[in-house]
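ingest -> validate -> predict -> emit
validate: passed (alphabet ok, no gaps, 442 aa)
predict: started
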Amino acid sequence: MELCMFAIAFDTSYLIEVWTLWHPSSWLSSFLKILTAMVSAVIAVRFVFLLPKPSTSTTLSQLEEARNELEAQFQQQIADLIELNKSLQVEITEYKQREILLQESEARFRLIAYTAPIMIWVSDIDKLCNYFNKVWLEFTGRTIEQEIGRGWLQSVHPDDRERCFLTRTKAFDARQSFKMEYRLRQKDGEYRWILDTGIPHYTENHTFAGYIGSCVDITEHKQAQEQIQASLLEKDVLLKEIYHRVKNNLQVISSLLNLQSEYIKDKDDLEIFQQSQMRIESMALIHQKLYQSQDLARIDFSEYIRDLVASLFSSYEVNTNVISLIVNVERILLSLDAAIPCGLIITELVSNSLKYAFPKGGTGEISIQLHTENNILNLTVRDNGIGLPSEFDLKNTTSLGLQLVDALTNQLSGDIKINYNDGVEVKIVFPLLEKNLNWRKK
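emit:
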């Protein structure tokens, strides 16, 4: 029986050695080693005393050799036991130190969270809140027992409660951070707007441990934002009214010029009145577009060009079957400061083509192109009419319209080039600088 127990103890010690190869850092491994070693030592001692007495055929040297072998094994077991005991003591000490550090770290976090000037909450992996700091509890006037779990939702405004719950749930399921605004009831019953930010946190071995969140009161910010929106709306209404009145005043001036022109007999004077009237109408059209636009700072210039040219063709009573119009423009938004001079330039150039390019009912076409390239806005107005004299000089021309085109181009820091081959082609380029153009493509 004792021999069986001795064999089992030694076999068990070998199994423990194999097991500790897989779990070398476990304190249980060391404990099992020590226990097995103690049992082996006790059995070995008992086995020595249970050895049969030497027979007459057994020599004294053989017994002495067996005794020495058992003694050596016993001493080795004692040495192993001492080493294992030291290792176990080290592991126990390290474990206690880690536990102390963890407790200190948790205590520091709770102290910081509890005394932080913002509301802080913590939840577990089941989406249930298990901690609220002092600021939160003072804000809501509720106890920690009332808030934990999903109790905190009772302080959320009924209109925001479902949205708040769904936002958190969706973020938890995706393990993503979230931000949301909702109304939270104070202890005095007043609801305040809260910005809630939640961030997932993990353990040292990257295991999901729940969420940590912080809340700040943004009621004043929301109120200021609402005041700004109301102020902007009021200014938009006022600006629309200004555009509308400017447009009406310009149309009144245009109508007065039209009435006055009926009493003018001189052909040149009448032409001056008509040109002035068309210039005023081009500016009135811009204010009308701005009044109708959702963006009160910029105008869709491509749409404006089409309406402007259509108005000019109508004023000159042009038959589009005789003089065709080609408009190829990008959809660009221009500020009022850029749109007015550009509109006047197009008015002058198209008017000149309609008046002089096709004498005696000649046929032809007028094309307008507008596009951007390398931060440059390119405007081209071309006709295939009779062209200009070879000695024409823009800087020395007596034409008021072309002088106005040159002046407006300089106003926009642009350059103008005129090509006389096969009709007249006027190219004007504008640098897309903030100080010159407040623009953007749609």
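Residues 235-296 form one domain.
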